[in-house]
Amino acid sequence: MSSSTPATSSNALGIAGLEQVYDQLATAIDQAGPGKAELFLVKLALLNAQALGDAEVFGRHLQAALQDL
Protein backbone atom coordinates (compact mmCIF):
# COMPACT_ATOMS: atom_id res chain seq x y z
CA MET A 1 0.00 0.00 0.00
CA SER A 2 1.39 3.40 -0.95
CA SER A 3 1.38 6.26 1.55
CA SER A 4 -1.34 8.04 -0.42
CA THR A 5 -3.72 5.10 -0.51
CA PRO A 6 -6.48 4.94 2.09
CA ALA A 7 -6.12 2.17 4.61
CA THR A 8 -8.30 -0.83 3.99
CA SER A 9 -9.98 -2.68 6.81
CA SER A 10 -12.16 -5.68 7.31
CA ASN A 11 -15.18 -3.38 7.75
CA ALA A 12 -14.62 -1.41 4.53
CA LEU A 13 -17.77 -0.37 2.66
CA GLY A 14 -18.71 -2.17 -0.53
CA ILE A 15 -20.04 -0.46 -3.63
CA ALA A 16 -23.62 -0.32 -2.32
CA GLY A 17 -22.47 1.24 0.95
CA LEU A 18 -20.31 3.78 -0.85
CA GLU A 19 -23.24 4.73 -3.09
CA GLN A 20 -25.41 5.23 -0.01
CA VAL A 21 -22.74 7.40 1.63
CA TYR A 22 -22.31 9.41 -1.59
CA ASP A 23 -26.05 10.06 -1.77
CA GLN A 24 -26.19 11.10 1.90
CA LEU A 25 -23.18 13.39 1.45
CA ALA A 26 -24.61 15.04 -1.67
CA THR A 27 -27.92 15.65 0.09
CA ALA A 28 -26.19 17.11 3.15
CA ILE A 29 -24.02 19.43 1.00
CA ASP A 30 -27.19 20.65 -0.73
CA GLN A 31 -28.85 21.21 2.67
CA ALA A 32 -25.85 23.18 3.93
CA GLY A 33 -26.03 25.45 0.89
CA PRO A 34 -23.23 27.10 -1.07
CA GLY A 35 -22.36 29.53 1.73
CA LYS A 36 -21.90 26.80 4.34
CA ALA A 37 -20.80 23.74 2.32
CA GLU A 38 -17.11 24.27 3.05
CA LEU A 39 -17.71 24.67 6.80
CA PHE A 40 -19.94 21.58 6.76
CA LEU A 41 -17.21 19.51 5.04
CA VAL A 42 -14.57 20.64 7.55
CA LYS A 43 -16.85 19.73 10.46
CA LEU A 44 -17.61 16.36 8.87
CA ALA A 45 -13.91 15.67 8.29
CA LEU A 46 -13.06 16.48 11.92
CA LEU A 47 -15.87 14.26 13.23
CA ASN A 48 -14.70 11.42 11.01
CA ALA A 49 -11.06 11.92 12.03
CA GLN A 50 -12.11 11.68 15.67
CA ALA A 51 -14.11 8.52 14.95
CA LEU A 52 -11.18 7.05 12.99
CA GLY A 53 -8.86 7.74 15.91
CA ASP A 54 -5.64 7.81 13.90
CA ALA A 55 -4.16 11.09 12.64
CA GLU A 56 -1.66 9.33 10.34
CA VAL A 57 -4.36 7.29 8.59
CA PHE A 58 -6.47 10.44 8.28
CA GLY A 59 -3.48 12.19 6.67
CA ARG A 60 -3.15 9.37 4.13
CA HIS A 61 -6.86 9.67 3.37
CA LEU A 62 -6.42 13.42 2.82
CA GLN A 63 -3.58 12.83 0.36
CA ALA A 64 -5.60 10.18 -1.52
CA ALA A 65 -8.58 12.55 -1.76
CA LEU A 66 -6.36 15.29 -3.21
CA GLN A 67 -5.20 13.07 -6.06
CA ASP A 68 -6.63 13.72 -9.50
CA LEU A 69 -8.75 16.76 -8.54
Low-confidence stretches: none
Indicate the radius of gyration in whole angstroms. 13 Å
Overall geometric form: globular
Distance between the termini: 21 Å
Please tell me about this protein's structure.
The longest helix is centred in the middle third of the chain and has 18 residues, at 15-32. The protein has helices at residues 15-32, 37-52, 55-66. The two termini are 21 Å apart. The protein is mainly alpha-helical. The radius of gyration is 13 Å and the shape is globular. The protein has a domain at 34-69. This is DUF2783 domain-containing protein.
What does the secondary structure layout of this molecule look like, with pairings?
Elements: H1 15-32, H2 37-52, H3 55-66
Q: What would you say about this model in short?
A:
The chain has 69 residues and is mostly helical. Helices cover 67% and strands 0% of the residues.
Keywords:
0% strand; 69 residues; mainly alpha; DUF2783 domain-containing protein
